[in-house]
Fold:
Amino acid sequence: MNLKTVLDTETINLNLKGVTKNEIINELLDILVSAGKINDRGAALSAVMDREEKMSTGMKHGIAIPHGKCPSIQDLVACIGVSEKPVDFDSLDHQPCRIFIMTLSPVEKTGPHLQFLAEVSLLFKSSEKREEILKAKTPEEVLKILAE
Structure:
């Protein structure tokens, strides 16, 4: 599993407008719908919100990874969104988030989902990478940062 194989310029939005957890989740879903990555938005929303109810996906260092397993998804899909304003995401470190990585995967496949989450968490342990993502001006820049 590789971030670069799952993401492309259509699945990166550097100007999220949402100011609440729900608004951000809906914006991220819109990115995936617009990019043609999901066709059952309702089922995808339900999967992500069910996961959020169990435990927040707000991590540390200003990153949230809303995710879920959805029966209408055939292969793992993902998108990245960045917000200019910090958003309260009920994070583990109680800090607001600005970088959001959503992933949805098929119900019956566990491997790619866990691999993706592990890769994301490793990547963003680097404060330099986080800063570079926050400063990026284009989706192409984000892809380049992820490739380094």
Remarks:
- The longest strand covers residues 77-87.
- Helices lie at 3-6, 21-34, 41-54, 111-123, 127-135, 139-147.
- Strands lie at 12-16, 63-64, 67-69, 77-87, 97-105.
